[in-house]
Amino acid sequence: MFDMGGNSQLEEIKEMKYQYIVLPEYTKKEMLSMEKEMLGLYISGHPLENIRNQIEAKTNINTMMLRELMQTDIENEENLDLEQNQTRLGLKDGQSVTYAGIISSVKKKYTKNNKLMAFITVEDLYGQAEIIVFDNCYQACSNILVNDNIVIIDGKLSIREDEEPKIVARTINEFVEVKKKIFRLNITNLNEIEKEKLKGAIYFFTGEKNNMQMQIQNGEKIDTSKTGIYMTPEILKQFQELVGNENASIIEQ
User: Fold this and answer.
1) pLDDT tens figures, 204-225
2) Judging by beta carbons within 10 Å of its beta carbon (0-12, 13-18, 19+), is residue 134 exposed, middle or buried?
3) Nearest Cα to Cα of residue 61 among 95, 111, 97, 18
4) What mean pLDDT do residues 2-14 have?
5) Most buried residue, 54, 120, 141, 248, by CB count within 10 Å?
6) Could you give the CA distance from residue 64 to residue 125 in angstroms, rounded to a whole number?
7) What is residue 12's predicted lDDT score, i.e. its pLDDT?
8) How far apart are CA 234 and CA 253, in angstroms?
9) Predicted confidence (pLDDT) per residue in 87-139, tens digit
10) Residue 82 near residue 161 (C-beta atoms within 8 A)
11) In this predicted model, what pLDDT tens digit does every residue of 36-56 receive, in sequence order?
12) In DSSP terms, which residues pair with 78 in a beta bridge?
């Protein structure tokens, strides 16, 4: 009645109990995307944070500026009208602007002339803006109007009383992230003679132009140099001949 089939069956049950599949960790991009989908906001970071400086260098407007167009001066208890806000911020209706962010929604519709247009919501580091995309622009960029794509938009500012400011797109392109290149030297396994030769090479190639940031790795510790180093393919080859290919490399961050 209580026979469990002997030791063989117990071993089989034990083996089944501890069987599991190890799955790879989600990437940072996947984690952020799921946070946005489930919670409506990013929790552990923002997908644009790593390219903040690149975005600021390529754009002349952000959603913080758009919000300020519709705000009053609470601090001084003044009710600034829309025209005063435009003057204060240096913005005006019809002005050419460049804006960048990550697409969070795309809504398509047909006009009375049976032409396709879209209203896309694009989020930067400060909030969301509505982008109006008419037929000609839409036909040129429809393939990249996809949620989670990072785009850069050239267009004109549309400012109306009692409406949130919008941007009417002329062109929309994918935002091309420029990877930062760093010259890394690993001195972990170098002897003192090799280190001295390396110091001389670093001193010789420290320059004022074509500088690349340099990192020195020693075991688990990585230090970033305060000065850059003049770098060309030929100079990289010289360093590799000095310390070995595996100890001198250019990485992207």
Assistant:
1) 988 766 688 899 999 989 998 8
2) middle
3) 97
4) 56
5) 120
6) 9
7) 61
8) 22
9) 667 788 899 999 999 999 999 999 888 999 999 999 999 999 999 999 999 99
10) yes
11) 767 666 666 678 888 899 999
12) 73
Cα–Cα distance, 241 to 237 (Å, whole number): 6
Instruction: Tell me the two tokens of residue 92.
Output: 């005006």
Is 216 within 8 Å of 246 (Cβ atoms)?
no
Q: What are the pLDDT digits (tens) for 133-158?
A: 999 999 999 999 999 899 999 999 99
Structural tokens at position 180: 């930062």
Identify the CATH number of the domain defined by range 49-174: 2.40.50.140
Place of tokens 């697409």: 103
Tell me what the pLDDT averaged over the chain comes to. 83
Predicted pLDDT at 77:
44
Q: What residue segments make up the domains of the chain, in order of their start?
A: 49-174, 181-252
Residue given tokens 């009053």 in the structure block:
72
Q: Which of 81, 104, 56 is nearest to 159 (CA)?
A: 81
| Residue corresponding to tokens 């009383």 | 161
b/e per residue, 90-115, with b = 16+ CB within 10 A? ebeeeeebebbbbbeebeeeeeeeee
Q: How far apart are CA 117 and CA 128, in angstroms?
A: 19
